[in-house]
Amino acid sequence: MNTNDKKRPNPIDVHVGSRIRLRRNMLGISQEKLGESLGITFQQIQKYEKGTNRVGASRLQAIASILNAPVSFFFEGAPNEDGDPVAGLAEEGTPYVGDFLSSSEGIQLNRAFVRITDPKVRRRVLDLVKALATDGTAPD
């Protein structure tokens, strides 16, 4: 076994960690707050999120409960042994969703949007965003 392989985090651990970070950020929960809820330090949360430390099954169940997500959420789009995403766990053709929700703007937009309770206002916001996207990409 190559020594460098030992130091490189497992791609599944990295993926699960990134999904923990994604869900935590979506909910606006700090690493400190999540760590307190689990009885561990924020540094341990950082290690989980980077994939440098593997999250055990019972700990992942506790994280899922705190973050109000099914355990399966943390495996959606996970790579297989070859590093390719596993078919059936992620929505086909929508890798941009994860990218969007990983960005600061995407998180802010998502948080604000879910606070809109009027369906008509939500629809108008969606129409506005679509119009702005079309205007930005329309040929001259």
How would you sum up this structure, described in words?
This protein is an all-alpha fold and 140 residues long. The chain folds into two domains: 3-92, 434 Repressor (Amino-terminal Domain) (Orthogonal Bundle), CATH 1.10.260; 103-140, no CATH class. 62% of the residues lie in helices and 0% in strands. The chain contains eight helices and no strands. It has helices spanning 3-7, 11-27, 31-38, 42-50, 57-66, 95-102, 104-114, 119-137. The longest helix has 19 residues, at 119-137. This is Transcriptional regulator, XRE family. It comes from Chelativorans sp. (strain BNC1). GO terms for molecular function: DNA binding. InterPro entries: Cro/C1-type_HTH (IPR001387), Lambda_DNA-bd_dom_sf (IPR010982).
The outline comes out as globular
Q: Taking Cα atoms only, what radius of gyration do you get, to the nearest Å?
A: 18 Å
How many structural units, i.e. domains? 2
Cα distance, first to last residue? 57 Å
Taking pLDDT < 50 over at least 5 consecutive residues as the criterion, the unreliable ranges are 87-93
Structural class: mainly alpha
Determine the strand fraction and express it as a percent band: under 5%
> What is the β-strand count?
0
Instruction: Write the CATH homologous superfamily of the largest domain.
Output: lambda repressor-like DNA-binding domains
CATH topology of the largest domain: 434 Repressor (Amino-terminal Domain)
CATH class of the largest domain: Mainly Alpha
Q: Give me the strand/helix succession.
A: HHHHHHHH
Mean pLDDT, to the nearest integer, reads 82
Residues in helices, as a percent range: 55-70%
Give the number of helices: 8
Organism: Chelativorans sp. (strain BNC1)
GO molecular function: DNA binding
Protein name: Transcriptional regulator, XRE family
Domain HTH cro/C1-type: 20-74
